[in-house]
């Protein structure tokens, strides 16, 4: 497979992988490549799409050594015409590269939340719904971006072929259970007013619907993204 047929996925930490997106890509026989940012980034070249996953770090933190290189890489991918799908931190980085801003959220979101759309778009129907949130920073959308959802914060925006979502469509029940076994994440959830046990019950009850919603979102984004020549 050529790079132009391949979806490149950037991961920043072991517990924030591609989740159900990996299964969706495999089921459709779409070639994809996972890169751990800590191991270094590939040479810039056009891809079918670039997916940037979540991270515990903040886009604006000058103490994080790998952020400048990743920011430059995303900027190079935009210049090469690669569509970018940013998830949580990935959406924040995409907004930053496109001229938006990222700052500390007044009201961090942890757990399941209802996302409402604020603008009519081809993506409206697949954005609105119940999604998993886990972020302490928020986005001021870049110029010329269409903000699809901005309830408590910007939850989704599009800019040309690029999509940023503040929520986590890729997360699975197994990933959430692993997060709730982590003391740091349990503490963060409680600081945001949630309880681990209640979150796990809600996850079990809504896991199938969340996976179906994620698949519809991927269908919409990747349906607009074709390898060169198709």
From TrEMBL:
It comes from the Bacteria. Residues 67-175 form the Glutamine amidotransferase domain. The keyword Translocase does not apply. InterPro entries: ChyE-like (IPR044992), Class_I_gatase-like (IPR029062), GATASE (IPR017926). The keyword Chloroplast does not apply. Keywords: Glutamine amidotransferase. This is Type 1 glutamine amidotransferase. It comes from Amycolatopsis silviterrae. The lineage of its organism: Bacteria, Bacillati, Actinomycetota, Actinomycetes, Pseudonocardiales.
